[in-house]
Structures are given as C-alpha cells and as structure tokens.
Amino acid sequence: MLTLAADIEVLARFGRALADPIRCRILLALRQAPAYPADLADALDISRTRLSNHLACLRDCGLVVTVPDGRRTRYELVDERLGHALDDLRNAVVAVEADRTCPDADEKDCC
C-alpha cells in the first residue's frame, strides 16, 4: 500500500502529464491503440521532434512504455487501467463543469 506522500507524488505526476494539451492528445490516442511515433506525429499533426519530447516526458512520468517491434519502437499506455482512468476523468469533468473553461495558465488565479 502506498503512503499518502507516494499517492500525492503519483497524482502530481499524472497532473503534470495532463497539463499540456499535446500530451493529453497523445494519451487519448494511445488509449485507442498503441502507435509508432511517426504515425502519431502524422495523426496529431505535430513535428516528430516535438512529439519525441512529449513522449519522453510521458515515459519519464511512467505513463507510457516503449515496445520494441523489429527495427521500430511502438508506444503504448503503461497499463490498460490508465485508459479507464482517462475516460473516468474526462467524463467526471464534463459531467461536473461542462460549461466552464480554465483561465490561462499565466493568470495568477489559475488552479
């Protein structure tokens, strides 16, 4: 069983990963199916370099893993429960505050 401090660290890591819209898009894409970086970059319409940086962040946060596949490397969510958590979180936010928007991160009052 995790301690409260460990629980907080895990949730903070998850929050940092979700704080960026591109990382959210990557996680939602990988929730649908594992993917290769080139395919993800094309599907998300971002450069491969930018995608690589975000995938590294998600790997460092422990949310995605690499799976060797011949000469290529595929990315996938670290655990299928993460996909369920993303669905639950998305549904909870939509159900509670569907008409709200978050202020810009630069604003002092942003959560």
TrEMBL record:
Alphabetical list of Pfam families matching this protein: HTH_5
Keyword line: Cadmium, DNA-binding, Metal-binding, Transcription, Transcription regulation
GO biological process: response to cadmium ion; response to lead ion
Keyword Transcription regulation among UniProt keywords: yes
A GO molecular function held by the record: cadmium ion sensor activity
SUPFAM superfamilies on file: Winged helix' DNA-binding domain
PANTHER family noted in UniProt: HTH-TYPE TRANSCRIPTIONAL REGULATOR CMTR, TRANSCRIPTIONAL REGULATOR-RELATED
Protein name: HTH-type transcriptional regulator CmtR
Organism from which the protein derives: Streptomyces inhibens
